[in-house]
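Subject: for your reference before the review

Hello V.,

The reviewers asked for a structural picture of the protein, and I figured it would be easier to keep everything in one thread rather than splitting it across files. Below is the amino acid sequence we used in the manuscript, unchanged from the supplementary table.
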Amino acid sequence: VEELTPEAVVKAVVESLEEHSLEIGIDSVTMEEDTVIVSFLYGKAPLSSVGSTVEETILNSIADSLLDNIDGCKKVIFRAEGEAYESGHYAFGIDEVYAAE
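And here is what came back from the structure prediction:
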């Protein structure tokens, strides 16, 4: 059984969402202690081209999947190309925790 890494979990969520014609841009996925940081690319979902409901669904799907499947993951932070996350609907501080166990 392949070890579940944060990257693998995010990739699986992205692939399942792509079945709904959503192109999600992942910049990077890193784990620092008990926190997984997912950075998205500008120009793709969830930062652009989606409404607030779809954006929230993407963020929740990724956060819940990481919290449920990655041992030691207690918090999830979202960023935009390494900077603070800001879309047309949501804005989070650079180290603001989006979801926690």
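For the response letter, the relevant points are probably these. The mean pLDDT is 96. The radius of gyration is 12 Å.

Happy to draft the paragraph if you're swamped.

O.
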